[in-house]
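Milestone M4 deliverable, item 7.
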Amino acid sequence: MGTITQTIANNLTTGLGGASGINFRNIIINGDMSIAQRGTSATGIGVGYYTCDRWRSQRQIGGFTQTQATDVPTGQGFATSLKMDCTTADASPASNGQLAIQQRLEGQNLQYIKKGTPNAESLTMSFWVKSNKTGTYTAEIFDEDNTRQITRTYTIDSADTWEKKTLTFAGDTTGTLDNDNDRSFEVLWWLGTGSDKTSGTYTDGVWQANVNANRLTSSQVNLADSTSNDWYITGVQLEAGTSASDFEFLPYDVNLARCQRYFFTEPNTDAYHGVCNGYFIVTTLFLGTLSVGVPLRTSPSLSVSGSFSCQAVGADLAASSFTVNDSEGNNLTKIQIRATVSGATAGQGTQLRNTNDTSAKFQLNSEL
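Output delivered:
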C-alpha cells in the first residue's frame, strides 16, 4: 500500500504519465469550464450560479444567456468555454448596475500567498478571451476580509478572435486573510457597470481600501449595449508569482471532485434513479443518508425539483418537504435527508428515487 500511495503522490507532483507537473498551483477551480453540473445553458440570468461550476454571475444590466460553449482557442487543449450572450440591450445602465462573472475563494486556500505580511506574494492571472466588442475591460481581486481591492485593465484588440491575456497583481502587505472556509477573495471579470463604480479616480494595479467610485476605469466596456455582443472566456489561471505558467489541466474526476465541494447534484440520467437508501422513522417520515464522496464546504442547502418517491412494499409513496438533517454531527460527506411521506410502515427500509422523472433534480449547495 505504501508503494501505491507514493506512486499517486509522485504522479500529482511530477506529472501524470510523465506530463507537465500537477501541483494545484491554479487558485481558480474549473478554469477550463469543463464541469457544468447545473446545466450547459441558462437564459435570463441574474445574480448566482447557472452553468459552469464555481463561476458566479452578477448581472443587473441588460439581459443575458450564459452557456458552456464549445468555441475555444485552437490548439491549446481546451474543449469548453463560458459564453455570455446579450439578449436585451441596455446602453445606459442604472448608476448601481453591474455586469461581471466572478469566482469566490476560501481563505484557508490562500494562506500561502502571505497577504498582509512583508513577504506577500504577487499573483499572476492568465486567461483566453474572445468578444466581438473590442476595447478596455477590467479584472479585479477583492479582499472581502479587509474590504480592499486591486484592479488591472486589459484590452480586447481584435473582434471575434481568441486572445491570451496575462495580468500581474502586486502582493498586498496590508490585511491578513482569515484562515477558514469562508469567502476571503472575489476574483471578478467586469463586463459593464453603472457610474457608481466609475465616477471617482481609477488607479490601475494598486491595492487600496475600497471606494466604490474608484473601482473601475470610466473606459470600461459595456457589453450590454447591443444584442450583437458576446464574450467568451476559458483557460483561467491565477497563481503565485510574477509570471504565468502553462494552464494546469487536471484529470476530469479531480476537477469534478473540487467542484462538488461547493455544489453536488445527484446524477439523474434514468427513470427511477435512486438517490439514497434509508428507512421510515414513523409512518409519515423518511430518513436517508446521501453520500457525496467529498467533504462539502459547509452544511448545505437542499434544492429539489420534480417528482420523487420512496419505494415501499407494494407501492411507491410520494415524498415531499425535503430537508437536510444535521444529526450526524456535521459529517459533510454523508448528508442525512428527511422527507414527508404518507402511509409508510415504521422501521421498514426503503430507497428514495425519482418517480419516472428524468428531469427531476436533487441538489446540495455549499457555495460561498
